[in-house]
Amino acid sequence: MNKIKKNVISQIEKTQTGNRILHNARYRIIFTASISLIINIAYAFYNGILGIVYASFWFLAMFAYYTLLSVMRFSAVLYEYKNKRHNEKFVMRFIGIMLIIMSFVLSGSVYYSIANDVANKNNKIVMITIATYTFYKIIMAIINLVKTKKYKSFLLITIRNIALADAAVSIFSLQRSMLVSFEGMTSENIRIMNICTGIGVCLIVFTLGLIMACGIIDKKNKI
User: What H or E segment, with its residue span, contains residue 161?
Assistant: First the structure.
């Protein structure tokens, strides 16, 4: 088994990309962000389709939110591949401002959806898709948090915070769908729970954006 493992690693190391993935921690994080970008774009369009099919305001709002997150991720990944590390703080602040703006837009969407009770029951396939995406994003956010905690590169912190904002909103979207699709709670309890979680998620996105926009992150151990 060890011999097979060594042979596989040896084959991977022969390629430039494979070698960088194995031996460059920064490149691994950026590479993972690139994969998340592709998934993010696909999920954004999925929400857009659901929004049209179900005439759902919330899914259309999520389409807009995930599309903007995709733009942020693309900006961060593109910046890295262009090798312009000397101005990472500018990218971090710019995306931080975008997150702040998104937190207010998200607040409006949450308020409108709760005030007008626009949540729709979803079938099992839709619920499984939302749950799968949410759990994947939670896992990736935790992994990014652990990996970037050691390295205080502004760009890696930006990617980490985008992942956290992604996971937070995904949790809220999953909660809304589950509470409506499965019986067990009264309408009033569902409303209260959605209000509490919605406020919490909006505050998380706003705080992440504020920290980045103000550039109050200490830059140490850069990679």
Answer: helix 154-181
Query: From residue 122, how far is each of 107, 126, 127 by CA, in Å?
Result: 23, 6, 6
Per the structure block, which two tokens stand in for 154? 């502004």
C-alpha 83/C-alpha 96 separation (Å) is 21
Cα–Cα distance for residue pair 177/120, rounded to 1 Å: 7
In a domain, 104, yes or no: yes
**pLDDT tens digits, one per residue of 57-74:** 888 888 999 999 888 888
- Is residue 2 assigned to a domain? no
Question: Is 82 inside any structural domain?
Answer: yes
**Closest-CA residue to 177 (of 108, 114, 126, 115):** 126
Q: What pLDDT score was predicted for residue 113? A: 78
Backbone angles phi, psi at 4, to 5 degrees: -65, -40
Say what the pLDDT of residue 222 is: 47
Give domain status of residue 56, yes or no: yes
Residues spanned by the domain of 71:
32-214
